Predict the structure of Gfo/Idh/MocA family oxidoreductase.
Amino acid sequence: MPILKAAIIGGGHIADQNHIPALKALPERVELVAICSRDIHKARALADKHDIPLAFDNAAEMFESDNRPDLIINCTANHLHHPFTMQALENNCHVLCEKPPAILAAQAGEMADLAQKNGKVLAYNFQLRQTPEYSLLKRALDNGRLGEVYHIKANFLRRRGIPGWGNFTNKSIQGGGALMDLGVHVLDLALGLLGYSEPDRIIANTYDYIGKAGGKGLMGGWDAEKFEVEDACFAHLSFPDNASITLSTSFALNTKIPKNVNLEVFGTKAGAMLNPFSLYSEVEGELVDMEFPHLEETDIQLKNTIAFLDACDGKPSNICNAAQGAVLQRIVEAIYKSAEK
Amino acid sequence: MPILKAAIIGGGHIADQNHIPALKALPERVELVAICSRDIHKARALADKHDIPLAFDNAAEMFESDNRPDLIINCTANHLHHPFTMQALENNCHVLCEKPPAILAAQAGEMADLAQKNGKVLAYNFQLRQTPEYSLLKRALDNGRLGEVYHIKANFLRRRGIPGWGNFTNKSIQGGGALMDLGVHVLDLALGLLGYSEPDRIIANTYDYIGKAGGKGLMGGWDAEKFEVEDACFAHLSFPDNASITLSTSFALNTKIPKNVNLEVFGTKAGAMLNPFSLYSEVEGELVDMEFPHLEETDIQLKNTIAFLDACDGKPSNICNAAQGAVLQRIVEAIYKSAEK
Amino acid sequence: MPILKAAIIGGGHIADQNHIPALKALPERVELVAICSRDIHKARALADKHDIPLAFDNAAEMFESDNRPDLIINCTANHLHHPFTMQALENNCHVLCEKPPAILAAQAGEMADLAQKNGKVLAYNFQLRQTPEYSLLKRALDNGRLGEVYHIKANFLRRRGIPGWGNFTNKSIQGGGALMDLGVHVLDLALGLLGYSEPDRIIANTYDYIGKAGGKGLMGGWDAEKFEVEDACFAHLSFPDNASITLSTSFALNTKIPKNVNLEVFGTKAGAMLNPFSLYSEVEGELVDMEFPHLEETDIQLKNTIAFLDACDGKPSNICNAAQGAVLQRIVEAIYKSAEK
Amino acid sequence: MPILKAAIIGGGHIADQNHIPALKALPERVELVAICSRDIHKARALADKHDIPLAFDNAAEMFESDNRPDLIINCTANHLHHPFTMQALENNCHVLCEKPPAILAAQAGEMADLAQKNGKVLAYNFQLRQTPEYSLLKRALDNGRLGEVYHIKANFLRRRGIPGWGNFTNKSIQGGGALMDLGVHVLDLALGLLGYSEPDRIIANTYDYIGKAGGKGLMGGWDAEKFEVEDACFAHLSFPDNASITLSTSFALNTKIPKNVNLEVFGTKAGAMLNPFSLYSEVEGELVDMEFPHLEETDIQLKNTIAFLDACDGKPSNICNAAQGAVLQRIVEAIYKSAEK
Amino acid sequence: MPILKAAIIGGGHIADQNHIPALKALPERVELVAICSRDIHKARALADKHDIPLAFDNAAEMFESDNRPDLIINCTANHLHHPFTMQALENNCHVLCEKPPAILAAQAGEMADLAQKNGKVLAYNFQLRQTPEYSLLKRALDNGRLGEVYHIKANFLRRRGIPGWGNFTNKSIQGGGALMDLGVHVLDLALGLLGYSEPDRIIANTYDYIGKAGGKGLMGGWDAEKFEVEDACFAHLSFPDNASITLSTSFALNTKIPKNVNLEVFGTKAGAMLNPFSLYSEVEGELVDMEFPHLEETDIQLKNTIAFLDACDGKPSNICNAAQGAVLQRIVEAIYKSAEK
Amino acid sequence: MPILKAAIIGGGHIADQNHIPALKALPERVELVAICSRDIHKARALADKHDIPLAFDNAAEMFESDNRPDLIINCTANHLHHPFTMQALENNCHVLCEKPPAILAAQAGEMADLAQKNGKVLAYNFQLRQTPEYSLLKRALDNGRLGEVYHIKANFLRRRGIPGWGNFTNKSIQGGGALMDLGVHVLDLALGLLGYSEPDRIIANTYDYIGKAGGKGLMGGWDAEKFEVEDACFAHLSFPDNASITLSTSFALNTKIPKNVNLEVFGTKAGAMLNPFSLYSEVEGELVDMEFPHLEETDIQLKNTIAFLDACDGKPSNICNAAQGAVLQRIVEAIYKSAEK
């Protein structure tokens, strides 16, 4: 395989801590040639720190440079996922875009269409797919250990986890709150277990009481006056084959556990808990609880970057693809619409 | 207050173990004068065992007897709740009817209308209202400790708890499965926290995979071939003021805990867990977990019988009344309808 | 099936508490017609207490009585297992004999031979075979879940459990100490997992330090001066197919746990722990620990008596049979011989 | 005392991580002058890293160099323990040889004989002797707190701990599997409690089922096709004074605990558990469990190196000496012979 | 020994539940001939229930009856301990008096003087002396295991344990609150470890905040308006030999544990915790925690009654004697005096 | 505010590890200009390490230097607290002096008087005041959550924590043992809850048994022959308003926990435990246990240094001030006097 040339768009924490180290750890597959940030100082600082040849504050220039990239990692703010991804696809680049896919369902659809038209890989960075627990859950499901899965409880709940930095409470930049930032992760995992089929019925409620009231923050203090998004969202999704998902996600909720990221999966032959991974089933006619004490820790970003590169190389990959991203974004939009009623 | 004359209709376990002992423990308020069962032998055996003057196998005879009752405890099978309650109300008796109120919403409505027309008390035996945990939860809510409650998770889940006796899997007698038998309890509790308002949107799914497949039973073995009801039901209820309830109930589910009866209540000022009762809130600007280690055990049937007698005597009472029963039955029906789609 | 007539020989605690209640609980299969004890007062007292028609102090008379028994429960002291079992077999009775089979290997061999010659069932009361844990272990083994079992650690250890009553420390009556009384139970269970094959190599050590020194007793005080048996025995058994058993048993040992009865079973596909029953294996390529939280409690004496009656009726049965008892007694004798070296 | 000149033979992990740092930490007692490895690059790299003056790939040259060593640390592969130790002794060096002493009992005997003949110290690096727990156990034993020790269970068990690197599964290099690599440690500890007397009876079984079948590895993946050694060994050792040892060791076994290194020691006055160190005894006529919560952590390699240097200086030392090594190697050989039957 | 004739004065719970059953369990040593209560109906009811020949409502009559007692159990209210004990001693009876000895120090002194003058045994029913934990603590101390004891923390603390019945909050009847009812128990135990020497310095504080404020009761509700005694008392006692006791006792205190009865004993060689009994010391130069997992349960009232009868028979006894009772009462009085300052 | 110039007197561990880093972390408020130590080499080494301009071995010179300090951190040995603090105050410096304030009460009084006379801030470094637990406790108290506090148990107990270095056992340098070094911390905290009022009655006992006997040390070995101070001190303080404190402190005590630093605070409305911070109270008429799971970790020395600088700047501050230090020193002296009786 030829070594692909990669460029980063977006100079924030997630570029610095996740994507650049993952790319740098794969020199036999990818070469990081450029970084682009609105703020040229940020771009240059990261380029220096990580030994990246080129720094830009204008994506168009980057795409026109001699050493133009084959693929783009789009780690800009949510509202920029769509424009920069479109621009990259138009420039015949593969794109790994941060989650959520976009702000609107129509945007994610457009992005998927363009990727298909241009024959490029568009993928989303739902890196929780790469945890050893989810991999094992998928394997168990694929091998028939769960039977048919008919109900999933998907939770991403924080007690007081409204980030005190960034734009997490700004609706026009983020497109939403807990659902857009956290809930999409476990929604993606749950959909992955149901073949990423699309629900035919959705009902949801969203809230912003605690976000607007303020209080103790476990991720820094937030500005209650500028809190524009939902701090909690509860939804029920029903699918054509009668499977169902209960989704619960919060930035802030009066609950005991500070951070609870989990799936409870109910199948005809066994149930599964994601964290810690467990199976509940019958063995020799008796109820059995199975625990898996030795799952190996994984660098999930590295694994997801590899999955993206595999897709770029035409290999099988468990990355969240463009079509899945479009389904997910339609569901997110439907949840918000249901909540507005 | 005069001592009220009571009669029991229905000669099963719940009469023998719950209602008769409760009535017998309150001799200063009520006198148990008769018991009526389709099976006269059962009726006579219970009358002998508990020292009840009269035994009947025909309710009409009972209502015409010299020592006619002032109130009826209706502990017949679900499909008989409506006819015997109507007959009792027509005979100017107060009625404490076992849960669920009826099989159909229209029946519960008719029962409530007749009670009102005849000026009689009609109440339902949701005795979990009387646990010390729920009493404390209500007190905390009423005194403003939770702020405004906006979301409730109501669970009544059994891992393998399909009863191996009785008619629990017979749809025409029971009207349904886990929801009719178990879910209604925690639904009643949750509605009680929301002022028993009526949801304007409902979505639900029901399942019968395990019930129809058979397997290990923790409450005796059941006949998978005669399993006609749902073994699990998941629903989302949304209310006009934007509050919401997630209801989960099962006779059988591949989950760890054998029996899980709980409410998680999320309010603007505090969250509450019902069992063990706990509050999650802020004190002096810090997150606090409050536990209540010394709640006193209660005879919940006795307390509910007293609540019913208080209602008969025109006193304030926290019994589930006829109007509430009608609301609950409409919700149950709406859940089943949603699940049929 | 005709109802069999049963008689008890031996008027001690184990007759009163275990065997008679079990027989009495099975009136459709067995009728208890007589009890025989050296002490006619004991015999009569038990006959009165349990409503048994006849009481004897002479077995020969019993066998000649009009209402002569079809089967005998021999619950005499160890050294009487042989003579009374021989007498019963000679009188054409089936025999359920208490464990251990006898004092000497030759006795157990003689007993097995006579049973075969007379076409009678001779069985031994190793009732731990009937625990739900051992039943499940056997089922898992038979269904191939463990693969091939190659090593078993069989423990029956007490910290200070020398009984302060009876003849447990008298060598001529008991034939031995911890091994004869306790170790035989777990040895029988372990052999049952290996097809009751006979080891070709045995090494063992026995001790009596604590028994002869005296000290704190958790089952009453014992007379250190009359302590004639081993208080601990450790042995290694190797089988022709290379399987092996490590047997550890004690009346008294300086160890933490007061009473430790357990098997650890190591198979090619899974390992098992008997108490609490657990399996250690691999699932989906990962190490898994399986626990079985809902095994039902069992009346193990009742189940063993039924197993004996099944054998008498020619049905399949998991009772310890005469041939197995002879194997076990040869092993016990070999252990003692090895320890004498 | 003069400062001794030391040289290392063997350039692997154990030289780099254990022996060189220990020697370097004792500049007042020993000077590390040379390192010898078959691979001169390895030798030079270690010499550079640790500031060692000379590097060789030929031991003979090293012994002839001007700065010839007074003592040798032999940390070569097992099959080289014998030749290099013999060569070092012939060159009048003291030797601290890694465990096991050798592959064959005859080798270890030869090595001990030559050491005695040349008046040199030959010792083996059983560094677990230096843990605070074993030191305390020895002290308690020596001061009579255990009374007479009569049985020891010595365990070194791994669930899936076949190293995925090195030569651990190569029989000609290692001489064996779990027993040679792991079991010898706890066997040495147990023998140390019994005065290193020699057993007069041994029985053992070895297995290689899991090693040859492959599966999940907790210490990397291993090559099941090249698995030539035992993955588990169970043995019973009986001593002339009737003491006994049960030895259990495994690279791979279907058991719960990933790594279990322990001794259970049974004495007439008290029993002891090594990890965590505990005593089980009687105080004031009552059973007592004693725990020792504040044992200090120790650098056990440093302590063992000091013990070796003490021996070289003619001081009392608890190092495993040449005679003990010969006894241990004879037992290992006897175990393997018994297992072959 | 002749069988002693006993009579009970006081017809309350403690007579019925503790003293009468203990006396009745010792027919070979004592015969219960009479019971005397102010309320003749109570006396007769107890006499009937327990098969006691005579019932009186006048002690003088009892002492003059034909079947006059040799010993008296005085289980009247605290303020009657003095008059009835004096009367009994004057009538040449031995007396076992309930704790506390009296209301005033002078009373206890008078009682001791009269007992000595008349040569009768006067003893107090501090039955916690008979727990297996305290017996073991005393044995350990007497055998030198603790070295010299220099400080004791004696706690009898209840969180909300003001009895909702009886006269526990009435100062003229009880003489005090938590100290008189609860604290005296652990004070007696602590003094027993220090040879019942008398402190030369005392400082104390008492409180009644919670008692007078009311609130949740774990032993029934109490009448805050009639709360006349201390609900908590903290005192420091210093002895001529520099030993010291910290005494803490409460009926009600805002603390976590509902009931905390314990001694922490600090000696030069070891410290001890009473419940659960533990020793903290050094063994082989290491800190050791000793636990005693198998202490046998005891009927402490029966053992204390036997101790009293032993004293009456002139045998050694660990009963609290008249002189000790006088010391204890002086300390109690000194504590109250210190608290008044 | 102008930046204050600071100098350190005392070149030990506490200067190096605590005070210098804290000052260096606050460049906007304070500039560290000099360090003075008896040992000029120590002074220079610290100056080099921390980039401090000037190093002295003579305080007088330092006060006369051009760059003379505005404030002094006095971290000399206890017996030098008085002379150097007096010298600093005379030179018109603010002083933050290490605890305890001094050796004698008169010294602390003199120091407070001079500070007042010269209008300088004198404060003591009781940095435990700055833990998040104590801050929360104070806030809860100030907001009335505890009601009125009437009893405090203040513990600073070590099992074997006599430091094996420094002068901790030297009476003339330290002024005392556990009380001077450890007890003063929790005494300061307790007094802070009672408005730093002064007790009118004190009783105390001190001991030195373990210190003089020697044994296992958890903080290094100590020289039992040079042990001149108390290893344990128990005291009871009673205040004019009837509040009381039980103080327990030890370097060495036969107790389970190695280090136990805690306050138990008993108030009329709630009780509090300092570590982990908890409240015990009533909510809705039920007993409640409140835990605070998310208190943020704090750099307590940094916070205390800021509190001192705030005081220097005339801002409100929770630093221990000169008057409080004088009260505390009087109490310490009274405790020692009481213990001498």
Q: What stands out?
A: The mean pLDDT of chain A is 97.
